[in-house]
Amino acid sequence: SSGINAEWPLRPGRDSGLEVKQYTYFKKETKGLDFDGMIRDIGQMEEGSVIMLHACAHNPTGVDPTSEQWDEISRAVADRKLLVFIDMAYQGFASGDLERDAYAVRKFTEDGHTILLSQSFAKNMGVYGERCGAFSVVCGDAEEAAAVESQLKILIRPLYSSPALHASRLVSTVLTDPELYSQWLVDVKGMADRIIGMRHALREGLAAEGSTHNWDHLTNQIGMFCYTGMSEEQVGRLISEFSVYLTKDGRISIAGVSTKNVGYLARAMHQVTK
Question: Which of 43, 63, 127, 195 is the most buried (most CB within 10 A)?
Fold first, then answer.
């Protein structure tokens, strides 16, 4: 099993008895994707390994491959005969377009990969406290599907047995009612556009404060989270001097930035990075 060198810690692996390794993903110098490093590492993976990928709005880096890069990743994964596990927790929260955010999932399926897909509705449906999602497995035929379903039921029984109904019924209702579904698409795009707008506002605010650093990565990255590039020392000053709280690696939640606090945040960031 192979992970990511900038991965959120709540992932299956060691607790399941798997040997977990990391592949190159984030490049600190550019605050973007180290695509060459990623392809190189995929090419060195043992055949039959499981590779975990984020479909969109990568957490925690906010860095996504382009569609052309996804195409090449698919080819590299096929060459090594890897089992693809795709985590999609933020569909719609990257670009605001559910179709665009699902590109990787559909590309890998079209290319003939057997994929496992874990999908969360916690964010894009606003049911975070209800823990609603879906797990899908693409199988070769009905016999394989029946065998996989049987194994999944064996795993599910001791874990949670029966999922809560409340959120799943909400999600099912929205997805199957044409009027509600159309309204939901507008709502999701509104949320994504607000996040994108806050990225631009923060970058513009830093420029207005007189910052001479290149903050293009704030708007080049996508989704709810952003690796700002600030050091642990700078983060410490943000916390102690400005009461702005973030993780020590400089990661911030753009969803927590608003029109009311973006100016203060830009001023604080400029003060600790100038």
Answer: 63
Give tens-digit pLDDT for 2-18.
445 655 554 556 677 78
Three-state SS string over the chain comes to CEEECCCCCCCCCHHHCCCCEEECCEECCCCEECHHHHHHHHHCCCCCCEEEEECCCCCCCCCCCCHHHHHHHHHHHHHCCCEEEEEECCCCCCCCCHHHHCHHHHHHHHCCCCEEEEEECCCCCCCHHHCCEEEEECCCCHHHHHHHHHHHHHHHHHHCCCCCCHHHHHHHHHHHCHHHHHHHHHHHHHHHHHHHHHHHHHHHHHHHCCCCCCCCHHHHCCCCEEECCCCHHHHHHHHHHHCCCCCCCCEEEHHHCCCCCHHHHHHHHHHHHC
Report d(CA 136, CA 220) in Å as an integer.
30
Catalytic residues: 8, 87, 123
* Cα 175 from Cα 181, distance rounded (Å): 5
Asked if residue 181 lies in contact with residue 171, where contact means CB atoms within 8 angstroms, the answer is no
- What pLDDT digit, counting tens, does each position of 18-69 carry? 888 899 999 989 999 999 999 999 999 999 999 999 999 998 899 999 999 9
* pTM for the model: 0.88
Residue whose structure tokens are 């080819």: 75
Task: Give the Cα separation of 98 and 88 in Å (integer).
Answer: 11
